[in-house]
Amino acid sequence: MSLGVGGRAQVAALLTLLAGGSESAVPPLALVTPEGISAVGDLPRGDMARTATWRPGASGLDWTEVELRGSGEARRIRVITVRLDPARFRLSLENGMSPGGYQHVWTLDRAPADAALALNAGMFAGDGAWGWVVHDGVEYREPRRGPLAAAVVIDSLGAVRLVDDAGVDALRSAAGSSGVREAFQSYPVLLDERGELPAMLTIPGAEINLQHRDARLALGVNADGYLIIALTRFDALGPSFGSVPFGLTLPETARLMRALGAERAVALDGGISGQLLLRDAAGETHRWPGLRAVPLGLSAVSR
């Protein structure tokens, strides 16, 4: 039996109360720090990144955890954020059994042993990965189209960018995707080419359910070309309940990515698919597993 929106919110509230959480009113989504509470939607771009306490990982990678408070299922949310300089790593799609993402077999357990970062990539459909897949310069799947689709493109020099359908067409027409080493598509776009939320994420009643809450995983690129990865975890009862698929709406996720400094951003598959692995500066592995295998992973190995 599935829970409706009201039922999910009631379960989230119950879990929060069992953990000793408060029912007191907070802004729609708030960042909690020792200095106080700030509405995420009011934060200037990059403000959360500037005030966060970053921890070192492999050279070129740092990470942090922040606490959010909101309403309903977002009463207590922890966000694990990674900031990575792609020039210092080799980024690669992963699924050794199915490079084109035709089989749902990838989990964190399949990440390379020397990966500094690994996460699930893109969305999936009935036949595996959704949309365009390029691995090691070989196109395995053709693009799909959508008003809020975006392709994450890693070029032969390691630079990362997000492009729309027209950008994908242009890349494919340039000598058969020459210069594209890795690419995958996902949706919806969270921050567009203006660095702002697309209209479809701001207008109720459009094609996207703006009220639906879920665990979220998002990928963005900041003004310096660094990757920004954010994974949310329900934080009412500690890590054991972290993979419960309660969390943010898509507009809240977009505002979170903007506060973390992203200029462009896209959602990846969250819910019970969302999973993330990183290694800190001491070599210790930190894992936030998902509850199901996915068609594709994305890893970063130091150059």
Summarize the structure.
The protein has 303 residues and is mostly beta strands. Helices cover 13% and strands 35% of the residues.
Describe the structure.
With 303 residues, this protein is mainly beta. It has one domain (5-302). The protein is 13% helix and 35% strand. It has four helices and 21 strands. Strands 1, 2, 3, 4, 5, 15, 16, 17 and 18 form a nine-stranded antiparallel sheet that branches. Strand 3 and strand 4 (61-70) form a beta hairpin. The chain is globular. It starts with a helix and ends with a strand. The model has no long low-confidence stretch (mean pLDDT 90).
List keywords for this structure.
mainly beta, nine-stranded antiparallel β-sheet, five-stranded antiparallel β-sheet, about 35% strand
* End-to-end CA span: 48 Å
By secondary-structure content and strand pairing, the structural class works out as mainly beta
Unreliable segments of 5+ consecutive residues: none
Number of domains: 1
Count of individual beta strands: 21
Largest sheet: 9 strands, antiparallel
Instruction: Give the percentage of residues in beta strands.
Output: 35-45%
Q: Tell me the series of helices and strands, N- to C-terminal.
A: HEEHEEEEEEEEEEEHEEEEHEEEE
Radius of gyration: 18 Å
Q: Mean of the pLDDT scores?
A: 90
| Estimated helix fraction | 10-25%
Q: How many DSSP H or I helices? A: 4
Shape: globular
